[in-house]
Please model this.
Amino acid sequence: MYVKNILGFLLCFSLIVSCQNIEKGTVEKQSTPVETDEVERTSISFDAWFTNPQPLVSAHRGGPYPGYPENAIETFEYIANQVPFVIIECDVSMTKDSILVLMHDKTLDRTTTGTGNISDYMFSELAGFKLVDNEGQNTIYQIPTLDQALVWGKNKALFTLDVKRGVPFEKVLQAIEKYNAEDYAAIITYRIQDAILIHSLNSEVIVSVSARDKGALKQIRDAGIPNTNLLGFVGTSEPDSAHYKQLHELGIKTILGTLGNLDNSAVAKGDDTIYKTYISNGANIIATDRPIEVANVLYEN
Model:
């Protein structure tokens, strides 16, 4: 079973006991870890995983669940306490005063109690807003900075950072370098030119690149980036086995995005064993909106 293989280097996190209070439309969660023996967390890194690549779960937008909003450190903690060696995929935006914060949308309207473009606000002004979960409930949590996330994540989780339009890659790299996060914070790119730029600025950073088709594979080959520095995103529908084989022959680990249709299909059919099939077919990482459910089936005894 997958769990027997992964236990050699995965760390066991304690489950969170959560209390939820709902008052005046506000959701509040308080968590107390179950008592466990103290374990030094030293193996949560891309280097450790590339050395012994076992199936990984990537939590899309940090893995929001009821009471836990997307792109919130409290949500990251909730997921990391239940999913061993998790990847936190999160979104990097920038305020008017050039502070990097975690936010998917261009505007504050959907995921916070604020309104308007995040780029129109000074960072200090964001303190007046709270995050809203996917069910529309206000929470007590605030918009975090990228710095705060990187500090939290060391030896707790891996990151793939989805850098939003208008945010300079140079600023994101400065934050990664500030916290020596090269081995646990990768950057997502959608154009091979951006991947080349990032590698030229810091050759130690792992880069996620589009690897959906033959054209993308040619771009990857021509880019000159060591394949050991790459994660290949194959899209949100399964490629054929030959495509997976080509990527693996290049030494590129693959990410399948089940978020959206594939996740919805698993829920509709009531059969989460399909995620094991995705791994068997060639996916190394499952990027999902259901990280806890996927981890439960991949790592079951």
User: Anything to note?
Assistant: DSSP finds twelve helices and twelve strands in the chain. The two ends are 7 Å apart (CA to CA).
